[in-house]
Amino acid sequence: MELDTPMIGLDPEDNVQFKPGPCVVAEMRRYSSRKASEYKRKVVGAQEVDNWIEERGEFASPAASEHCGAVRWMYVCVIIPTKGSSSRPLTGGSFACTSPTALDSDGNYLSSNETLELALSQETFDRLTTRYGFSPQVQEAWRYRSSSGCGARKIEYDDSSGEIKSLVLVMSIRLSGSFASVIAINHDFRKKCTVVLALRVSPYDQTLLQKALESHQDLVGHPLLIPTMVVEISLATNMLYMQKIRHELSVIEKATGQHAWLQIPAADAPAHDSELSRLGHAVKIHISLSRRRLDSIKCWLELIKKSLKDLEQPISNSFVRTAGPKHEYEQWMGNVELLVQFRQVDLCYSDRRADNQVTAIYGLLSQRDNMVGVSVAIESKKISEASKRDGSALKSLTVLTALFFPATYIATLFTLPNFAGTPFWLYWAVAIPLTLVIFGSWASWTFYRQHQIAQETTARNIDQDIELDPERAFPPSPFNAASSSFVMSTLRQIRLQTKQSHAHSTSADAMTQRIEHSVGNKNMRH
Fold it and tell me: According to the lineage, what is the superkingdom (predicted)?
């Protein structure tokens, strides 16, 4: 199975299928009495979809003077699972997600092999996107479904009067899930109506959108109501990821014991060090994903604030009749921005906790490696002590051999026929002096080698001390300060002359070699 990463880039754009079927449409209106209608939701067929697009029949829009604003929704897609997925396709504009193929069980890494099925014919979809100015931005947003997001804004002006006629905004943004939803928005300032085309929106997200619209029904008709509402939902659902990060951090802190929560005792670390390390890096990945979502939300907020500034006059003419809705929207935007800042503070705090735990994990791994090294050193010491005992035994055996070998050799000689009748005292007269000579020679040589090795070791240590610090090797004292200074200066001069003589000898050797080489070349010519 192919795993996707966040560094995918553009996804294939040819995996879109058009299969006409039922679509879900919804609508909410606000009247001059500031009373909003109920959120009406209906499943429509192909013929009713045409009426909805053309605003005919029961979907006809009332005159602009009869209402203060309207929002019209259409959910038109179903996600087809890839091969091997057990997901069950649903109808009626619902959503069936592909089976997760990434490390995260929530599917944070999107599968680029999934297919987008639109419950419209290609002709109807082209007519819908052309009528409301969604093409080709919708197709581009689908191509960027694996990235942090995609957006496009277009302001249409009236050719005769030069006034702003409509605002088109296409958003690729993550709502409750890790997949990106594509939401295309068209607000007509003359009709005070907002048309929303929603692709890849799950039933749960549809419910969230409905509740958010009902909670902000006094702002129905505001051109930036839907973008702000979508951003607020994405920010609110991001709390689920924050809770997941906090839970995983608590598990790691309990395993490592590196925390300040006195009421949480430290538990035994996982049996495998790789498992604990994997958990630590998984938390870092989740923090990066959550930070990416917050950064994309900040991008959308900047675009919304810029649009609010650019459309200040059209909004005042078409929507704001009193100061109440204007102040309400400004306070709402301020609250959303404040929540974004708080989420960033939480992310920074969680990131520091994760860094501390990753450091603690590496510390635990290093401690375990050190303990293994200590145990290996202990075993090596035991082996060396056993080897030393074996060497002592072999030495004793050698001494015994040297002690009895001369007498054994002489006894073997006296058994020959040539020495028959030799007195017995002669054997001892020869064997004892020979044994003493051999044993004494071996002992003298052994003591001489030990003394020579001790002298070489002492001289080597003195040379190292002088090389590092002559003053430390010969510390001055109040009684022999002059002699110590003389010794140290003498040592420095000796070292300097040694280095110079070595350099001169090296250069002289090189000069001699060059002269011999040149003389040899001349002789060869002659």
Answer: Eukaryota
pLDDT tens for each residue of 382-406: 998 888 888 888 878 887 887 788 8
First to last CA, the chain: 81
Domain regions of the chain by residue span: 12-217, 222-371
- The Cα 181–Cα 173 span in angstroms is 5
Kindly tell me if the per-residue pLDDT of 93 is higher than 70: no
Q: How far apart are CA 278 and CA 104, in angstroms?
A: 12
CB atoms within 10 A of CB 184: 25
pTM (2 d.p.):
0.65
3-state per-residue secondary structure call for 260-311: CCCCCCCCCCCCCHHHHHHHHHHHHHHHHHHHHHHHHHHHHHHHHHHHHHHC
What Rg value do the Cα atoms of the chain yield, rounded? 45
Quote the tokens at residue 480: 């022999």
Asked if 71 and 213 touch (Cβ cutoff 8 Å), the reply is yes
Please name which of 18, 15, 11 lies closest in space to residue 143, comparing C-alpha atoms: 11
* Cβ neighbours of residue 75 closer than 8 Å, sequence gap 6 or more: 23, 24, 25, 26, 93, 198, 201, 206
Of 395, 375, 399, residue with least CA distance to 383: 375
- Enter the DSSP assignment of 319: T
The reported pLDDT for the residue numbered 373 is 87
Please give the Cα distance from 464 to 276 (Å, whole number): 46
Other C-beta atoms closer than 10 Å to the C-beta of 14 total 6
